[in-house]
Every structure is written in structure tokens, then in C-alpha cells.
Amino acid sequence: MQEYYKESLQDPIFNIIGLAAKELSLDCYVIGGFVRDFFLKRSTAKDIDIVAIGSGIALAKKVAEMLPNQPKVSVFKNFGTAMLKHNGIELEFVGARKESYNRDSRKPIIENGTLKDDQKRRDFTINALALSLNETDFGKLLDPFDGIKDLDNKLIKTPLEPGITYSDDPLRMMRAIRFATQLNFEIQTNSLLAITDNKERMAIVSKERIIDELHKIIGSAKPSMGFQLLHETGLLHLILPELTALEGIEEIEGQKHKDNFWHTLEVVDNIALHTDDIWLRWAALLHDIGKAPTKRFDKKIGWTFHAHEFVGSKMVYKLFKRLRMPLNEHMKFVQKMVLMSSRPVVLSQNNVTDSAVRRLVFDAGDYVDDLMTLCEADITTKNPKKQKKYKNNFKIVRQKIIEVEERDHVRNFQPPITGEEIMKTFNLKPSKEIGILKDAIKEAILEGEIPNEYDPALIFMMKKGKKMGLTVSNQIT
Ligand code: ATP
Ligand code: MG
Questions:
Q1: 173-198 tens-digit pLDDT
Q2: Which of 34, 116, 127, when mutated, tests ligand 1's pocket best, judged by the most ligand atoms within 8 Å of its CB?
């Protein structure tokens, strides 16, 4: 049966590409993500892949020539590909190819091939679907590996023997898990076994590419699905051993602690319901990593993870560095979230005082809302009574944060009295007294002894200065 899907190719660009190919006397097809997402009714891709039976670079150049604005063509000669941007969409052109691999590299040896050769080298059957852009059979589906069937069955399957596919390019293992997570598909059993068998080959994939895929897993609706697969195949232990170290429940003298690995995955799923911020999701993923190295059993108090937040925040730096993630404000944000991750909890367990809330807002600054979102996601108790109680406590904290902030403005605290003014008032040279006074003013504000305003702060400073034995300068009095 021959099937046509012209309706997916309504964008005039597809006709133009077809015409350009005709002028060059070659055939061409749209292939990969665009076709897959059309059948899945997913929002249309930001990149479209075109395969030419011949030179992809020549086709890209011809297309650019025919477009009214004649866009620039970026040529990647080494890869035999070319890219141009049209209406905000990246069009990628490649010549159909046959690939063979060396064991020690992801870079294949390439020969020209047929469309089918090219489909064979694709990672998954659902990514090997092609639609013709040729005049004679415009819109015709070419699906030699039953990709449509796998779309219907929600199955991730490789066109070739999975052991070969994954060993050739181990990045595909991450891609399999990423697509399964994004699309809520199952990975075919043979494929899953092959990933497990080939996991060590991940060593030849660059950290950057691994992280790209990890970001996409974390950015999915239910990230735990991906982490469960990464765990099951043994990949997680190779990529993020800090997480797998959290797995397991120990029991001593009848006392157990919770399994912090599975707990963490729940937290990440929870937070995914409330934020798309990838770094806040990372924070959720890493918020408990300090618990493995700090775990102790104390005869009197049972299991403790003393200072795990501090230890965890230090581990964030090492982890980011190892995975070549940016050591910038995103990393600092994750560190801060991990470091402060227990603060609202401790606070909400006691009588929620204004001064404790002021301190929280002061320390968390602009990130206080993110921190609350993290703590709310951290509630994974299955006891409905407790769950309700914890949620309600955080509600109270959130309300107090708003009240305190309206009144005291400590979120981005600016001292009401500058160091210079302190120096002038007491006729001081730069010295430690200034720091002591500044700190005392800040403390008085956070404790609620004085409001965060100039006059009360000035009076407070004068009193405190006198107590410290400082004399007020003549110019002031
Ligand atoms: P998305 O863009 O939504 O992440 P996609 O399927 O378009 O999904 P791309 O990374 O843009 O993924 O790749 C485009 C196409 O190139 C894929 O559909 C697939 O056919 C092929 N492809 C990409 N990476 C690989 C790989 N490592 N091995 C084999 N084929 C690949
Ligand atoms: Mg794509």
C-alpha cells in the first residue's frame, strides 16, 4: 500500500526544496524528527532534516538561491552537511550515506548510499521515516523499517540489530532513553538489553553530548522515567554515581531511613509539575546528594545526615566540573538551593516567627520562591495526614514571606546606613568597628528590634556606638 501525507508538507518551503532538487536532477526527502512529530501530532520541530540522494550541500545552495532573501548557507564540509535558516526554522541538508564504524570513535567512515542505506544508519525506526519531496510522488511515505507500527505501539526500536546500533554510536543509548521519556514510549526489550551490555561504551561520548540528553530528560514531563531507565541499564552509575549512592535502605536496631534515591526521583517528578526551570529541576535532582557521605547511625537519635546540605552543595561544584557543565550562575543557583534545602522545613516545624522568615528571605534573596517550590516538591510522605500538615505549614511560610517582605524589604537587603556614614559619625578610619556596627544594625532588623528604615537605624547605631566606647564626631553633633 502506498500512502501519501501531502498535508504535512503544506509549508511552501517543501515545494521549493523539491524544485531545487529537480533542477539538480536528484531526489530528496524530509526525514527524521519532523516526520515523526507530524505523525505524533507534536508541535512542529524547530529543525527539519532533508536527505538528498546526491550532494546535500549542493541542494542547500540551490534552495538558498531560489529563496527570495537568499539566506546564508553554513557548510560543514567534514560532515558533508549544510544548514540554512528559513522563517526561524533550521533546514539541515545531508547526502544519503552508508556508514561503517571503528570501535574507538563515534565518527563513521562514510560512503554515498541510497535512501534505504541512509534510513538504516538512523537511530530508531520512528526516526527513519521519510516523506518524498519529488514531483512524481510528493508526500509519499517511505518506511522500510515499520516505524509507523512502532509509533502506534509506542516503541523505541533500532532499524538494525541493537547491539550494533549502540556499539557504533553509544550516544544513541542516551537518545533512546531520552525519547522514551519525552514521548512516553517503551524501549524494546532487546534494545534495553543491548544498552545494558554496551553501557561502558559511553566512555567514548563527549560529556557535552551526554549532558544535552540529560537536560532533555530532566526537562520532560516525568523525568523519573528516564532516570529509572538510566538506572536499570547501569548508565546512571557511570554518569551520576552521586545519585546511585543514595539507593538502599539500611536498618540498625529496628530503625530504618528512607531510600533517598527513589525519594529524589519523586521529588523531581513533583517539581516538574510546578516549574520548567531546568536548573531548579537540577536542584531537585541533587538536593540530597550529600546524604550518602554524611550518613551515620547514632544510638540515641537514630539515622542522621548531619550537614548533608553543606556537603551536598560542595559536591554540586565537583559534579558540574566533572560533567563539563557551566560553572556559572546556574551552578551557584543549584548550590544555593541544595545548601538551603532544609531551611524552610526546619522553620515550618516550629512556630513560624517573623524573624525566622526574615532571615530566610534575607539569605535566599530572589530565590526564596524557588526554594519554597523545592521544599514543597520534597514532601513525598504517603501519609495523607502528614502530607496535609506539611503542605499547610509551607502555605503559612509563603504567606509570612509576603507579609514580612511588604513590611521590611529584606529580599535584596541594602543596609540603611552605609559604612561611610558610620565612619563619619564616629570619626573612624576603616576598621573592624565598622563591620561590627553594620552587622549589629542588620541583626537588629532581622530580629525585628528595629524596622528597616533610616531614622531608627541611625538611633540604634548611635546607642550601639556609645556602648562600644566610640565618641560621636564634632561635625555631627
Ligand atoms: P528532536 O530534534 O526533537 O530532538 P530529532 O529526531 O529531530 O528529535 P535530531 O537530533 O534533531 O533529533 O536528529 C535528527 C535526525 O537525525 C533523527 O531523527 C535521526 O534520524 C538522526 N539522528 C540524530 N542523531 C543520530 C544518531 N546519533 N544516530 C543515528 N541517527 C541519528
Ligand atoms: Mg530535530
A1: 999 999 999 999 999 999 999 999 99
A2: 127
